[in-house]
Amino acid sequence: MNALYRQGAPASWQYHPSKRRDWQIASTIIHTSSNVASVLDVGCFDGRFLDHLGNRYRRAGIEVHPLAAEHAVARGIEIVGRDFSDLDTLHSSFDVVVALDVIEHVSNPRAFLASLAQATRPGGMIIISTGNTAVIPWRLMGGMYWYCNIAEHISFINPHWCEHTARRLELTIESLVTFSHEPARVPESFIQATTNLLYRCMPNLAYGLRRLYAASKGKACRPSDRMPPHWRSAKDHMLIAFRVPIRDSRKSGLHASASPHLIAGA
C-alpha cells in the first residue's frame, strides 16, 4: 500500500479550501482554541490544509508521497515524517494533530488514534475526519455503499466507535460534527438517493440501464459501471475533536496501545 500511495498521481486530492467542509470546520476549531502554537497534519499531501490554516502556527506534516511532500515544503510546511510509523518516534509533540480523510486508510484505526495521541501534547487536541457508517444512507446500502468501494478504504467507523475508543484511550470528545462533502439541492439529492436504492434492490437492472445510457452516447461499458453510484450529497462524513488528558505519562496506556501494523495513507 505504501508503494502504491507513493506512485499516486500528483493531481490527487487537489481541492480548493472552499470545497472542503472538513477543512473549514477544523480551521474554525483550531482558530478558536487557546494555547495553540503548533499543528501537525498527518497525511498532509501537498500541505494545502496547513497553508489554508495560516502561518501563525508552527506547521508540520507527515506525507508518504515524495512529490506532494516537496510541494508542502515549498508552502513552508516542515515535513517531520514519511510514514504513520514515524508518529511513534517524533522528537516533539504538537498542540493539535489532524488527520483528515486518513483513518479509513489504516488497518488498525484504534492503534492509529493512539499514535496520534502520542504525538499530541498533554491537554492538546486531535482532529480527524472520515466517513460515518451510522448514517441512514450507509445503513440502507451496507457494503454496497459507494464509500466502501474505494479500494484504499479499508476501515470504517462511526460515532459509537469514537466514544468507545475514546474511553479506552482515556480521551474526551470535545465536538463531533456531521457533514456532506458535496451538499446538493433537493432534486439532485433525490436523484442520487433513487439511483442508489435502485442499485441496492436491483443491481443487474441498474447495470443494464447504465449500458443502455453508454450505448446511447456511443460509449463502451466500463468495469466501473458495475460499481455503486455515488451518494455524495448524503451527510455521510463526520469530524471529531478529541482532547488528550493532562496526566502523568508514566501511568498512560497510550504508548502501549500503539501498533506497528499501520499503513501510510492519503
Describe the protein.
By secondary structure, the protein is an alpha/beta fold. The chain has 2 domains: 2-184 and 234-257, Rossmann fold, CATH 3.40.50; 186-225, no CATH class. Helix content is 35%, strand content 18%. The chain has helices at residues 2-6, 21-31, 48-53, 66-74, 109-118, 136-141, 159-169, 186-201, 203-216, 254-257, and strands at 38-42, 58-62, 78-81, 94-100, 120-131, 172-179, 237-243. It has a 7-stranded mixed β-sheet with strand order 3-2-1-4-5-7-6, sandwiched between helices. The longest helix has 16 residues, at 186-201. The termini are close together.
How would you concisely characterize the structure shown here?
This protein has ten helices and seven strands. It is an alpha/beta fold. The chain starts with a helix and ends in a 9-residue tail after the last helix.
Supply database-style keywords:
single chain, 266 residues, alpha/beta, Rossmann fold, 2 domains, 18% strand, disordered C terminus
Blueprint (SSEs and pairs):
Blueprint: H1 2-6, H2 21-31, E1 38-42, H3 48-53, E2 58-62, H4 66-74, E3 78-81, E4 94-100, H5 109-118, E5 120-131, H6 136-141, H7 159-169, E6 172-179, H8 186-201, H9 203-216, E7 237-243, H10 254-257
Parallel strand pairs: 1-2, 1-4, 2-3, 4-5
Antiparallel strand pairs: 5-7, 6-7
Helix pairs in contact: 8-9
Which fold does the CATH topology of the largest domain refer to?
A: Rossmann fold
Coarse structural class: alpha/beta
How many DSSP helices?
A: 10
End-to-end distance: 11 Å
Q: In total, how many beta strands? A: 7
Q: Based on CA inertia axes, which overall geometry fits?
A: globular
Order of helices and strands: HHEHEHEEHEHHEHHEH
What percentage of residues falls in helices of 4 or more residues?
A: 25-40%
CATH superfamily of the largest domain: Vaccinia Virus protein VP39
Strand content: 15-25%
Specify the CATH architecture of the largest domain: 3-Layer(aba) Sandwich
Largest sheet: 7 strands, mixed
Report Rg.
20 Å
Quaternary structure classification: single chain
- Main sheet strand line-up: 3-2-1-4-5-7-6
The count of domains is 2
Q: Runs with pLDDT <50, length 5+?
A: 249-266
CATH class of the largest domain: Alpha Beta
Average pLDDT figure: 86
